[in-house]
Design a protein that fits this description.
Layout lengths: L2 H42 L5 H5 L12 H32 L4 H13 L4 H15 L6 H25 L3 H9 L4 H28 L4 H5 L33 H9 L4 H35 L3
Length: 302
């Protein structure tokens, strides 16, 4: 065997070793995850019922439910999406398509990348000082949604920019050759072709926000709410009410934290059942992201 053949054989052996090592680590991680989910299901499945989903929290474990928590989670996620997604997508389009290549743009890009790695508690402290104390928005759905919106905004910008970069250059060149303006090219070609990846990034960012606890505790999330917020509609004109934005709130992670911190074993079972609901919500959001990405990819033929 020549030296080159020995070197090739050694490299192939290393490749097989690293492939085996990676497979082993993946299997161990999956087994640990399955064990944790299995324990959660074992503890919480017996508590899942329609009564659990439609009841308010109570000091009696058998009567306690999560209706205020899951309604609050949905409303907070709605405010978060409305606050972060338009701003994030717009900022990404500007940075990728319009921003000049100078030191200011580079500084903005560095700050966005750094903000994506900042611990969530820092956003909670910033929101506490700015939204609660400075703007006097109180401990409300609006404060919670804006806080989580600031948290996921860098992720939305980064995901959208990566999606826009994946559009081949000849798509833009063909649009310019046919007389399209810069905005027409971005609006009619670049954004539609990258929409699948953009929506996937949005949903994945929201799926991270749905499980956040630290920033919401910081801005004043309540652990016991025995009422629902005001409805988003009204009988008189304009038939839409925003009074619910300033109502006190709680979310699923806060309710779970409250139950886990109690000494009674029955409350721990309630927390496990709530964890299953939250896990199902997160998996549903990720499934929606996968379906959206697949549908948009089928429509695109390069």
């Amino acid at each position: 065997m020549t030296p080159i053949q020995r070197k090739i054989a050694r490299h192939k052996s290393l490749d097989r070793f690293f492939a085996f090592e990676g497979l082993t680590v993946m299997i161990v991680a999956l087994l640990v995850l399955l064990a944790l989910v299995g324990q959660l299901m074992f503890d919480g499945l017996t508590r899942l019922s329609w009564q659990f989903l439609t009841s308010f929290p109570s000091r009696f474990p058998a009567q306690a439910g999560i209706v205020s928590a899951w309604v609050g989670t949905i409303l907070v996620m709605l405010v978060t999406a409305l606050a972060a997604i338009p701003l994030g997508v717009g900022a990404a389009i500007y940075l990728e398509e319009y921003a000049p290549n100078n030191w200011a743009t580079e500084l903005i890009e560095i700050n966005i990348a750094n903000l994506a790695g900042v611990p969530s508690i820092v956003y909670g402290l910033m929101a506490l000082g700015l939204l609660v104390y400075q703007f006097h928005l109180g401990q409300s759905f609006l404060t919670a949604g804006l806080t989580l919106g600031m948290l996921i905004l860098p992720m939305v910008i980064i995901a959208t920019r990566e999606a826009i970069r994946s559009v081949p250059p000849y798509v833009r060149e063909a649009a310019y050759a046919l007389g399209a303006t810069k905005w027409q090219t971005v609006r009619d070609h670049v954004v539609p072709y990258s929409m699948g990846s953009i929506l996937t990034g949005m949903i994945l960012a929201l799926s991270r926000a749905v499980g956040e606890t630290a920033p919401l505790i910081t801005v004043g999330a309540l652990s016991f709410i025995a009422f629902l917020p005001h409805p988003p509609w009204q009988e008189a004109f304009p038939f839409v009410s925003f009074e619910w934005l300033f109502d006190p709130f709680t979310v699923m992670p806060i309710q779970m934290f409250n139950w886990v911190s109690r000494p009674q074993e029955e409350f721990h079972v309630n927390a496990a059942a709530a964890g299953l609901i939250l896990l199902a919500m997160t998996l549903a959001m990720n499934a929606v992201a996968i379906v959206i990405r697949a549908r948009f990819r089928k429509r695109i033929h390069w």
